[in-house]
Amino acid sequence: MPTQARINSDRLAALLGGINGFGFDPGSGGYDRRAFSDADMAVRRWFMETMAADGLDVRMDSVGNVYGRVGPPGPAVVVGSHLDTVPAGGPLDGALGVAVALECVRAIREAGLALRRPIEVLATADEEGRFGGMLGSQSIAGAVPPGWLDAAVDAAGVPLTEAMRAVGLDPGLAGEAARDPADVHAFLELHIEQGPVLEAAGKDIGVATGISGCAVLAASLVGAANHSGTTPMDMRRDALVGLAEVVAAVPGIARDVGTDEARLTVGFVELTPNQPHTIPGRADFTVIVRDVDHGAMAMMIGALETLLAEASARHGLAFTSGTRSWLDPVALDPALQQSLLAAAGSLGFDPVSMPSGAGHDAQMMARLCPSALLFVPSEGGISHAPGEFTAWESIEKGAAVFLKALTRLAAE
Ligand SMILES: [Zn+2]
Fold first, then answer.
1. What does the alpha-carbon distance between residue 123 and residue 95 come to, in Å, rounded to a whole number?
2. pLDDT score at 1
3. 128 known ligand binder
4. Distance between CA 105 and CA 109 in Å, rounded?
5. Which residues of the chain have pLDDT under 50?
6. Domain membership of residue 297 as a residue range
7. CA of 124 to the centre of ligand 1 (A)
8. What is the CATH number of the domain that holds 272?
9. Are residues 86 and 217 in the same domain?
10. Is the dihedral of CA 401, 406, 409, 412 positive or negative?
11. Residue 340 · residue 405 · CB < 8 Å
12. Residue 364 Cα, ligand 1 centroid: separation in angstroms?
């Protein structure tokens, strides 16, 4: 006799603990499961063994994505997130979504519910972008740009193709990871918010309306390097003075040109020379441009280029700028959002709809199939750091909402 499926909190905690048995970094107190590292591949193998022990059909695809499938033939409801981390990452980013996905399958099966659609638990490869993209979900969606795989390198200059070969994956077969849209009914992901919005609002559940686009503007200001003592102040062409003017104006551009969700960040700056006694002749820097609106992203880039031209003219500098990469904003599926909101409501929670400022696998999966993203709060908005934390009670609520929505999609 089937009963109501329920999250087993201890079992979920044990599964999350099992994942975080890999890649602990005593130096930082966080986790290092960088894509295709020993720890990353070890956790993938362990997760496959764990799912196999549960009776799921497991496989690793040609780029390292791990799947566990259960249920009848037909288009699958895919659930999951990623197992890789940034260096010195936290215990929840990605890992929580993978653990909740498998716990939901366990709960549904334990309750004896018959699956109307198959469920596939998915742990994607290189979501954190060691090689600059979201290799796993991009490959599944067939959205890897031509030539990208062969050109991609990590921050240390290691080519992606070399890293793949080192773990036994053949880059020549990467295209085989692409799924046929006819085989995938939907994708659901649970993730920590990685921002402060839910905590500030006192809410446990967020449902993402969409995911901000992200563009990288790479720019240089070029003046003249010279002696800090002999060059009069009015005879300098100081690239850093020009840059300072640009950086100071960036928040105003976000406020005046972008939407309320606009985020502009100057996160990389390199001065040449970078010496105490020399006027910096050159400044290379990037501006990360994020917004939920494509047009607003383009207008902010236009405004930044105008600003660069004005600051250069005032300080006798030349400038170059170019958009180095561009990811469009993505709208998530309205019907799936509604079903997550309804599931939360039926459990007595008060969810909020909100955009996602950070990139997630769901944005790639949305190119393939209807996709949705559920958030639980991040204490202090902290993530990508060992201090990443979500109250267990909030995790339990998020998992219960996820289970309810998944049950409705696949088992009712
Ligand atoms: Zn993540």
1. 9
2. 62
3. yes
4. 6
5. none
6. 213-327
7. 10
8. 3.30.70.360
9. no
10. negative
11. yes
12. 13
